[in-house]
Amino acid sequence: MSLRLLCVTAHPDDECFAFGGALALAANRGAEVSVVCFTAGTAGSYRGNAKTDKELGDLRRAEFAASCAVLGVNHHEMLDYHDGKLEFTPISELAGKLVERIRSLKPHVVVTFGGDGSLNTHADHTIVSAATTAAFHWAGSPKRFVGLGELWTPQRLYYQTTSYFLPERLRPLPAPWTLTLDIRAVSERKLDAFRAHTTQRPLLNQVEPLFRELGQQEFYTLAASMLAQPAAQSTDMFEGVAE
Ligand SMILES: [Zn+2]
């Protein structure tokens, strides 16, 4: 049996932009890595040659698959919720989708956005954080989503957070981090995964210099664990996690 990691995102490219280092490092150590993405990203400003939302969705679905392959993700899934409108979907419905997946994938560690909405303060990111938090705590509860798979309690929940802000953008209010990942060994792979998102090349062109200057680390906050404990600093997402 190996360690298993589940990452929950909102849009294709979140898996590399926000979590790419963590996912590639986990894959490198032999962990089984899964990504669930709620939307096909059809509200994006950058649309490649797509003429319709359907065309853009198809392109971005393929780009997401290619990016996941670069990162070493074992299992990826894109749900068909509307990009930009997650806040209007009942949170219990979104959490239910994740409870089902947590119970079937049985991750030891779950990682998602913080409630701040990440660097671009996207509302979808905030909702994904809330739904993932609920699902993390509910997947092992016999009182929640009865009959929706065998109960499973993951050991840790992490929120992605940041040590810097994007220039000329609304600033998030990020959580202080407890986990610092040195991603230098996989930072080129993180960029290669981003390059797989061909339609989002203008975005990559904007952020690549920032990534090269500041992106050699990723920061996360331990938001829930099996132990009652004071916050402590760590450099390993799986430290102390039992298979
Ligand atoms: Zn996003």
What does this structure look like?
- This protein has 243 residues and is an alpha/beta fold.
- The protein is built from seven helices and seven strands.
- A seven-stranded mixed beta sheet has the order 3-2-1-4-5-7-6, sandwiched between helices.
- Strand 2, helix 3 and strand 3 form a beta-alpha-beta unit.
- Helix 4 packs across helix 5.
- It is globular.
- It starts with a strand and ends in an 18-residue tail after the last strand.
- The structure holds zinc ion.
- The site of zinc ion has 5 residues, from loops.
- The structure class reads alpha/beta
Q: How far apart lie the N and C ends? A: 7 Å
Question: Are any ligands bound, and if so which?
Answer: zinc ion
The 3D shape can be described as globular
The helix count comes to 7
Give me the count of strands.
Answer: 7
Question: What is the averaged pLDDT score?
Answer: 96
Helix content: 25-40%
Numbering strands along the chain, what is their spatial order in the largest sheet? 3-2-1-4-5-7-6
* Main β-sheet description: 7 strands, mixed
| Low confidence ranges | none
**Rg on CA atoms, Å:** 17 Å
Break the fold down into its secondary structure elements and pairings.
Elements: E1 4-9, H1 14-17, H2 20-28, E2 32-39, H3 53-71, E3 75-81, H4 91-105, E4 109-113, H5 123-138, E5 156-161, E6 179-182, H6 187-195, H7 201-214, E7 217-225
Parallel strand pairs: 1-2, 1-4, 2-3, 4-5
Antiparallel strand pairs: 5-7, 6-7
Helix pairs in contact: 3-6, 4-5
